[in-house]
Design brief:
alpha+beta, Aminopeptidase, seven-stranded mixed sheet, 9 helices, 7 strands, globular
Length: 203
């Protein structure tokens, strides 16, 4: 079912926590989040802070888009040449507090998966490109075209400028969704410590 009208707007700073809570619901059943927080109650309690921190980073140093009125879906994009996470930016966004807030062991599990996959990033798309590190839609609105609308904002700009876009996902069901929007699988692999399967994709 498609929503008749989906208006996508830049995220406002005051919406970061609400967007983080929606993303926590969207990713509650997710291989990486389950690996990070094996306990459901812990995941429910801590995941909103986790996503809010990443959305805040994107708000400060990238571009973040959401659904008008209520941040039920969110896309965090990094501009061409701007996808590197620096120590200074991590501190400004508050991500340096992640081990303390989320637990050192949980953060280490998450980081080990992401670091493994991110090593492929500069090899697979060395040219200037848009990078999508986070896209999610509250489960209550999934399947209504929100994800496609969130993608379209930047993909249209990338097409106008002749630039590629890049992402990776650990959900098999996301692969055909992105393929329908012009992405091709570059690498299908398994992070060895967690056993999590992932797909890197380029458009």
């Amino acid at each position: 079912m498609m929503r008749e009208e989906i208006e996508i707007v830049p995220l406002e700073e005051s919406q970061i926590e609400a967007a983080g809570a929606a993303m926590a619901r969207a990713f509650f059943i997710d291989h990486i989040m389950e690996y990070m927080f094996p306990d459901d109650d812990e995941r429910r309690r801590l995941a909103p802070w986790h996503f809010s921190a990443f959305i805040r980073y994107g708000y400060l140093f990238g571009e973040v888009y959401t659904t008008s009125g209520s941040p039920d879906g969110t896309a965090v994009w990094f501009r061409p040449g701007g996808s590197e996470l620096t120590a200074e930016r991590i501190e400004l966004a508050g991500l340096d507090q992640a081990p303390n807030v989320l637990g050192a062991a949980s953060w280490a599990r998450f980081s080990s998966v992401c670091d493994y996959v991110e090593r492929l990033h500069p090899k697979e798309v060395p040219e200037p490109h848009w990078y999508l590190p986070l896209l999610g839609v509250d489960p209550a609105l999934q399947g209504q075209g929100v994800g496609s609308a969130l993608l379209k904002v930047i993909l249209d700009r990338a097409d106008r400028d002749g630039l590629p876009a890049y992402l990776w996902t650990a959900k098999a069901r996301n692969v055909p969704f992105y393929q329908k929007r012009g992405f091709d699988v570059v690498t299908e692999g398994v992070e060895p410590t967690s056993g999590i399967r992932f797909w890197t994709m380029k458009r």
